[in-house]
Amino acid sequence: MSSKIIELKDVNKWFGEFQVLKDISLTVNQKEKIVICGPSGSGKSTLIRCINRLEEHQEGTIIVDDTEISADTKNIEAIRAEVGMVFQQFNLFPHLSILDNCTLAPIWVKKMPKKQAEELAMQNLKRVQIDDQAFKFPGQLSGGQQQRAAIARALCMEPKIMLFDEPTSALDPEMIKEVLDVMVDLAKGGMTMIVVTHEMGFAKEVADNMIFMDEGRIVEKAKTKEFFDNPKSERTKLFLSQIL
Amino acid sequence: MNYLDNIIKPKQANQNTLVIFGSILILISFLDVVLLSVFDINLTGSSKGISFFLPLLLGFIGMYYIRFDHTNFPLINRFNKSLNIDWLNSIFTLLSIFVLLKFVPLILNWLIFDANFIGTAKEDCTGGGACWVFINVWLKRFVYGLYPDSETWRINLAFILLFVTIGASYLAKPKFKKYIILFLLFVFPFIGLSLISGDVGGLVYVETNVWGGLALTLIVSIFAIIFCFPIGVMLAMGRRSELPVVKYFSVGFIELWRGVPLITVLFMAANMFPLFLPEDVFLDKLIRCIIGIILFEAAYMAEVVRGGLQSLPKGQYEAAKSLGMGYWRMHLFVILPQALKIVIPGIANTFIALFKDTPLIFIVGLLELLGMIDLAKTNPKWLGFAAEGYVFAALVYFVFCYSMSRYSQKLEKRLSTER
Lengths: 244, 419
Ligand SMILES: Nc1ncnc2c1ncn2[C@@H]1O[C@H](COP(=O)(O)OP(=O)(O)OP(=O)(O)O)[C@@H](O)[C@H]1O
Ligand SMILES: [Mg+2]
Fold this sequence. Notes:
A: 10 strands, 26% strand, binds adenosine-5'-triphosphate
């Protein structure tokens, strides 16, 4: 099970003068789970947002599912449809019911018949345990429920890869667990996942590999156990001592 | 001693008595104002110069006595809470009521009691008030302009069809509803237009020169409203586009059209534009004017819509993109529904302004409602009834504008999904 699905080679990115990503190289295999951590501003969000081209990189190559992502990529939408993303701020569509949030893209991007899309949506909502909220609007749900709905919405596109950008940092403590439980379940189901998070308990439970980023670089990449038991870099040690 | 104390300082124990006493004082004060202004009878005998001072004083004392936190009279409680909070508030209340009492009777007299409604000529207006005979006699012109009497059924038919289709769209199943609405917006206007102009099936052709009155107001407004909206939305999206050509075209268009007065636009549309057209191309003056209004209002609409687009958080765009939606799908299903909902008040505002701007087409010789009234009031047989005409116009405009305003409020409520 080691066919690679994402490959980044020497990726550099600038915001104006400021270099956010420096020589990032990384391969992700199918079904692999990677957790990225690092201090604020280290470029974690930018890195995963380059993978579905919500941000453009200026140098290096990014290959997702055998397609190189660049300015000429004609079918960037097709790639995005395969890469699900979950945001810190949920970003549900407030004018649509939870069910419609889930069926919108399958119907209009994948051309799925409405009925089938609704069945799929209900399945995924059941999976994240909010099928009873299907007809409510996002504004009527708690934060934890909204984030689970957002996960269900991404799953409805039946993506090959899921990206999570700090999915629990906007949540009250009592809601974090319900979202993490859903993510653990998803990981066990064999999804390829890249997760930016500081929930180290979650990382220890599901991650195959850990990445520590600082100042735009991947400082350390290691098997999860090794990363926590025996970090090599001083900066990683310091960071871990601060958050554990 | 005790007695005096009660009068100066209202006591809870004497509340009922004081409230009744205060109310009587207030009523006397109102009665005095009414008698004075309507019948010229001076109840309190004060001299004319201070004729409002005495009722004010009486009312003020009365309101002082009824100002309890809680009384046994619900009406008084309500009055105290909103109109009699403290002494300053009570003075403003009294003055406002006096002004109403003085002027409302005068206005009602002019509008109704001293007015003449029935007749066929100016001479039938013998009362001191408004001469509604003027409106009555000219009503047909005000509604249909100079459109030939024998053909007005076509205008009626067009509008009846319009209302029937609107009604059908309410009753239809959701599945057909959107088709009816699309038909209403983009097909029906042209059917109506050909029916009224008569370039179909053996109808007498009626030149747009003679179109006018309220019918013309509505024709111009309906076309302008229907078409300025999508153009405005496209311009708003264009202005935020990443393609420089699209962006600068939109910016240029918006700034240019917003920068000229509508009256200039209309004048150019009517008199200059044909010079640029090839010899054999003929565009009717009315159509040219409507196009001018559409483009002018589209520029305003664009800025209103842009406000809505800008107010959406970036996350909405990103979420739509991350689900694989391209530019058009993202805007159609995610961005515009939210942005437009936010700017409903601004859109209604623009539509109402557009509606009230239609009289400006008089500059090119087209006479809608206000234009027809202006024409009628200069008719030698009917000189001197401008006021009646303008009051009538104001009323008609108000009815339409207020309906639009109410409708937009209802729409806003219906579309609200928040919290
Ligand atoms: N659109 C932008 N324009 C300019 N600078 C940006 C932009 N987005 C991010 N940055 C900068 O890039 C750096 C990396 O940002 P990024 O959001 O990737 O950090 P992060 O590791 O996700 O941090 P956090 O933990 O706070 O989310 C930060 O210094 C940030 O200020
Ligand atoms: Mg981040």
